[in-house]
From TrEMBL:
Assembly: Homodimer.
Residues noted as binding Zn(2+) in the record, renumbered to the chain: 88, 104, 111
Cofactor binding: number and manner: Binds 1 Mg(2+) ion per subunit. Binds 1 zinc ion per subunit.
Keywords associated with the record: Amino-acid biosynthesis, Cytoplasm, Histidine biosynthesis, Hydrolase, Magnesium, Metal-binding, Zinc
GO molecular function, one term: phosphoribosyl-AMP cyclohydrolase activity
The protein, known as: Phosphoribosyl-AMP cyclohydrolase
Compartments (UniProt record): Cytoplasm
Pathway(s) served: Amino-acid biosynthesis; L-histidine biosynthesis; L-histidine from 5-phospho-alpha-D-ribose 1-diphosphate: step 3/9; Amino-acid biosynthesis; L-histidine biosynthesis; L-histidine from 5-phospho-alpha-D-ribose 1-diphosphate: step 2/9
UniProt-listed PANTHER family: HISTIDINE BIOSYNTHESIS BIFUNCTIONAL PROTEIN (PTHR42945), HISTIDINE BIOSYNTHESIS BIFUNCTIONAL PROTEIN HIS7 (PTHR42945:SF1)
Stored Gene3D superfamilies: 4.10.80.70, Phosphoribosyl-AMP cyclohydrolase
């Protein structure tokens, strides 16, 4: 599947519908388009959502760094947009993606790798790649 960006005039009209919070953010859930696997949740500003919809490469807003964060810019673990959806309240975005590599900074495919159980949190998956390799860190 190849993503096709909407025309600029349509894009502006669509972005006007999104209900960004008081900080200018909207929750964005990334889901693998073909398997339904939920990969991660992050935040988008209007600018991040616009860039995502214009380019087809998913862009978020890093609250810790206070700047746009293009998924995979340092790790190489890119998300290609297949489709973006807006929820019924217009305050959350679902991005259906083709995830290249892992989505989680811990080296796992999904950020949702722990389950609440009667015995406490249970780790469901192990890292597929060492996080230090992802970000080229040396100890």
């Amino acid at each position: 599947m190849t993503y096709i960006a909407p025309p600029a005039a349509e894009l502006d009209a669509m972005l006007d519908v999104v209900k960004f919070d008081a900080s200018g953010l909207v929750a964005a859930i990334a889901q693998q388009h073909d398997t339904g696997e939920v990969l991660m949740i992050a935040w988008m500003t209007r600018e991040a959502l616009r860039e995502t919809l214009e380019t087809g490469r998913v862009c978020y807003y890093s609250r810790s760094r206070q700047k746009l964060w293009r998924k995979g810019e340092t790790s190489g673990q890119i998300q290609h947009l297949i489709e973006a959806r807006l929820d019924c309240d217009a305050d959350a975005v679902l991005v259906l993606v083709n995830q290249i590599g892992v989505a989680c900074h811990t080296g796992r495919r999904s950020c949702f790798y722990r389950a609440f159980t009667p015995d406490g949190l249970k780790e469901l998956t192990k890292p597929e790649i060492d996080p230090n390799q992802l970000y080229h860190k040396h100890n």
